[in-house]
Amino acid sequence: MHCSIHTNIHPMLGFDWHLGTPGYPVPPVPMAHFVAQVLGGIINTDPSKDVLSHNFMTIKRGNDIGMFIGHVAPSILALLLPFGSGSKCEFGAFSVLTNGTPTAIAVGVYVGVNLNCADPIPGASVNGVVAPGTNMANFTLADFGASMLSVAVDIVFAALIDGFLKFAGKCAMSGICKLASRSSVVRGIAFHIATTDILSEGMVGGMFSNAVNYFVGSPVGSSVHENAPGNIPGNMINREIQNMMSNHYNQGTQIN
């Protein structure tokens, strides 16, 4: 079938699940956060500037909106989430390339699907993209299968990265809290805050993840962002998937 090609102004919106709390001493619980941002993001430099659709920049498959996706919820942690946010266009037409990369498409013809950051499993949030337009790309069953394989790869890598960062955040906050005061009462309260993730979640989301995101992609896995090195495992696997699909189309064999 033919699907609308994504551009940098197509809006992504929906709900992500993150740990949230109105404040101490209420422990964090999973909360729905309303999220919204255009696919081009605010500081995203990945959308193609020389391949246009309706005079807007075309989006590549695997594009990550990155930082500054708006998160709205009655939680003090919601203010930190945009600094470690992520939303990826996983579905693409592998036979239609944008600067050598498969073009992102709306898998629902005029409605796209993005994989978003989430807790406790990154990538567990699936949100919609409104994608009106008349420029279309052919999307086959083979493209769908390859895109779903990329989804699985990204979720696995996201879970590994996120688990390591959360563990590191907890260890760091626990150490800081233990050194903060010799008072057992103050230390006990501080340790409780750290172990309930109020600060360690924020530290991970706002600092650790932000640093890692710049090089390897968002909390939903590897990224085609120009700053992401191609030799990290996630990007290497995605490149192999792209090569597999390139060979598939070069052979003239299509699974329609």
List keywords for this structure.
35% helix, 25% strand, alpha+beta, six-stranded antiparallel beta sheet, single chain, globular
SSE arrangement, N to C: EEEEEEEEEEEEHHHH
Average residue pLDDT:
81
Q: Overall 3D geometry?
A: globular
Tally of extended strands?
Answer: 12
Unreliable segments (pLDDT under 50, ≥5 consecutive)? none
Cα radius of gyration in angstroms: 20 Å
Strand order of the largest sheet: 6-3-2-11-10-7
User: Describe the biggest sheet?
Assistant: 6 strands, antiparallel
Question: How many separate domains make up the residues?
Answer: 1
* Separate helix tally: 4
Share of helix, binned = 25-40%
Strand content: 25-35%
In short:
This protein is an alpha+beta fold and 256 residues long.
3D architecture notes:
The chain contains 4 helices and 12 strands. Strands 6-3-2-11-10-7 form a 6-stranded antiparallel β-sheet, with no helix packed on it. The chain has a two-stranded antiparallel ribbon with strand order 1-12. Strands 4-5 form a two-stranded antiparallel ribbon. It has helices at residues 141-180, 184-195, 198-216, 233-250, and strands at 2-4, 11-20, 29-38, 48-53, 56-58, 70-72, 87-89, 92-98, 101-104, 111-116, 125-130, 136-138. By secondary structure, it is of the alpha+beta class. The radius of gyration is 20 Å and the shape is globular. 47% of the residues are buried. The protein has one domain. The model has no long low-confidence stretch (mean pLDDT 81).
